[in-house]
Design goal:
5-stranded parallel β-sheet
Length: 234
């Protein structure tokens, strides 16, 4: 079952989105507020694949809801829906753990393309968690491909499914400069038509989790004019 939690306070917009998602084969469970969404999610947390969150809602807004959902699950796919064009809204949502964002107004085809892309990644992670059994060790870090976990000096580091895929790509190519477009294609898919900045924000978020001093990264380093690389001690 492809099940989504659709959170939007404007009824007409929410029902329009739900109709298009249901036509595409998704089950869209609707909520009109952040508080209602959390109640619905907590009743069956393992049943949802993706959450679509409007940012501007009275009471608990989309940012706070994103933070609460991410506390509950690192594997849930989260897309932020915003009518604003300010860069800070997009960055804030991603820093709180969202996987993607869509700026209103958007077409049904764009919404479905983003949802389909994220759903494929969520499903891919699930299948890998069952079939893979390898570990990749780089210095003090261990990436477990079966459990989809990362640890540093034996201490677990919580990663979203997008963050895990980025780290996996780096661990498979240590000390190799990876272009932003390559990372975007590998993680978000060739048909993704968002912006490259989503890579930069996720790198910033990862540095906060893995680096001793995120302002002076020694592992996930920038390769100016190209992208990033995972630097080892060798």
């Amino acid at each position: 079952m492809r099940k989504l939690l659709l959170v939007e306070d404007e009824v007409a917009i929410r029902e329009f989105e739900a109709i298009n998602l249901q036509r595409a084969g998704y089950t869209a469970v609707q909520a009109g507020s952040g508080e209602e969404a959390l109640q619905i999610y907590d009743m069956a947390p393992d049943s949802f694949d993706i959450a679509l969150l409007d940012i501007s809602m009275p009471g608990m807004d989309g940012f706070e809801l994103c933070k609460e959902l991410r506390k509950r699950s690192e594997s849930l796919g989260i897309i932020m829906l915003t009518a604003r064009t300010q860069e800070m809204d997009k960055v804030s949502g991603l820093m709180l753990g969202a996987d993607d964002y869509i700026t209103k107004p958007f077409s049904p085809s764009e919404l479905l393309a983003r949802v389909d892309s994220l759903y494929r990644r969520v499903e891919m992670n699930r299948s890998k968690a069952v079939s893979a059994g390898d570990e990749i060790k780089l210095d003090e870090f261990v990436l477990n491909l079966r459990r989809r976990t990362l640890s540093k000096n034996g201490n677990p580091i919580e990663l979203t499914q997008v963050e895990f895929q980025i780290v996996e790509y780096f661990f498979q190519n240590p000390d190799t400069a990876l272009d932003r477009n390559d990372i975007l294609t590998r993680v978000w898919g060739a048909r993704y038509f968002g912006e490259e900045k989503i890579v930069d924000v996720n790198i910033r978020r990862l540095r906060m989790k893995i680096e001793d001093d995120p302002s002076k990264p020694t592992r996930l380093v920038t390769v100016w004019g190209m992208g990033y690389k995972w630097s080892t001690n060798e």
